[in-house]
Amino acid sequence: MAQLFFVLYLLSVIGGIAILLGEERSAVSSIPWILVVVFVPIVGLLLYIIFGYSLRRKQLIDVEVREALSDAPLETRAVPVTEVQNEPDRELHSLSALIERLTSTPLTTANELTHYDDSREWLSACREAITQAQHYIYIELYRIEEGPWLDTLLDLLTERIQDGVAVYWLYDDVGSRSLSRRYRKRMEQMGGEVATFLPVRFRLLTSRVNYRNHRNLVVVDGAVGFTGGNVLLSELSRMPDAVLPLATSHLRMTGEAVRQVEYSFALDWYVATQQLLSPQQFSPTIAPQEWTAEPIKVQTFPTHPTDDFPSLEMILTHAFLQARRSLYIESPVLIPTSSIQQALISTALSGVQVRIILPRRGRSWLAPKASHAFFTDLLRAGVEIYYYEGLREATYAIIDEGCAVTGTPYLDFRSFEYNFDLTTVIYSEEVAQQFVKRYEETLALCHQVTPRQNKLWRRIAHGVMRLLTPLL
Question: What's this model's pTM, rounded to 2 decimal places?
Fold first, then answer.
């Protein structure tokens, strides 16, 4: 019997290590799983197959499908490269070029771009746009929670469908797991098209549970697009009249930039339904003479765990290293990969003012504690870390007060390895100043984190947390 167990142990360890090495994962993500497989034989291998199996380099969408979706109504007019190179802040040209090469998303323009720091304002703007819809509505949300806001939205969408507006609604199966069957059935019976992203039938028997669609977007008639982080819907239901903003970071945009948001939705819709969205009859264009303001240069790009390279990690690392004077960051959590951590440290050591705002508490009790494991080196390098007393899910970075990066990704391992995220880079000093203003207002409500005595037990705990980062 003992020999049989030993043979099973060897097979599970050898098999697990072979699978890990065959996936060409980084050492940072491979070592924790190898330890699990070695110290928890058989069970560790099963855990890896269920939760750790990587989708990297797995083709969810064929090249032909991407080309088909990029035609007709979803095409994006790119800003000529020479136009960017001739600008004073042309050092950011390398960032836009990197984004285009990694994600096939060219630089484009928005006629109008509004930044919201409050979920209620963003939802109100979305409802107003939906009310005015004449042809079609795309909605994609990571988390849907029951409450008055959902009832109001469903009633509004039902009215628009009855008026002949086509509605396509996509939501994440795991992110919206609290949604009851009654509400799911009501959504399906509205008359529009409703789909779930990577549905999980047996949550303990599939690696799909680990790969989630974190994107949040709304597109109305191709004329106006909304993107942003997680809407704090549960807090919205409990505190409809709260004085403090329900802090997230959202955008409303018009113009050619909306096509990139549409394209992201079309990709996800195909993954969920295997259906190509047919070209819409209505593809509005805005006459240039109607806009007197200078168009705002933006890139809204999706990142996937199936990308050939860790696109999001590479883009953010490059963006942080572009800072020459200041780098201001707010994120719900800070569990950086090695390259992100080194970029923050290098930027701070080069004399750039690097500030990071984090919430004291989060949706997960473990994530804020895991962030502590990375504080010591960051603080030693001169990075300023601030705590906000309360819950915030705003996610953005401001580079030299002239460029803003915002979207659904967090500064954590899951966003870089497991999530389907949507990010917008805004190359506009005017818009960046809006972010700076909000950042300074939030900073006034925070207190700065100071280095603590690095006792032995704390160093050991932090070492364990860093080692387990890929498993969080």
Answer: 0.80
